[in-house]
Amino acid sequence: MQTKKIMICDDDRGILEMLELFLDMEGFNVICESNSTNLTKQLISHQPDLLLLDLWMPIISGDQLIKMIRSTPEIKDTPIIVLSASVDGPEIASGLGANGFIAKPFDLVDITQKIDTILKN
């Protein structure tokens, strides 16, 4: 079985490093991006199986990024799980066409289950 590639985009370095370490231990190939302006380029070049995306980031916010991703032919079908501490997060995520939502602070078991569920489809 081929290793699944997961890209994480979050402006919080601590969250990025913790998720990278955890998902790497779970057997995923992890690509991290902290600068939201590079994300669409990185998605096109790496073609990950799944994107974990923070909603509130400087420069280009997660909601704007989802709109850009969904309108870019090469990456429009990339599954996206939104990570956010926002109380409106689940509505925002589903309204934009994200495949899932995880509230911050998150439970690592919850993240693994959501990822596994989406990647099995």
TrEMBL record:
Keywords: DNA-binding, Phosphoprotein. The keyword DNA-binding applies. SUPFAM superfamilies: CheY-like (SSF52172). One of its GO terms (molecular function) is DNA binding. The modification 4-aspartylphosphate is found at D54. Signal peptide: none annotated. It comes from the Bacteria. PROSITE patterns: RESPONSE_REGULATORY. This is DNA-binding response OmpR family regulator.
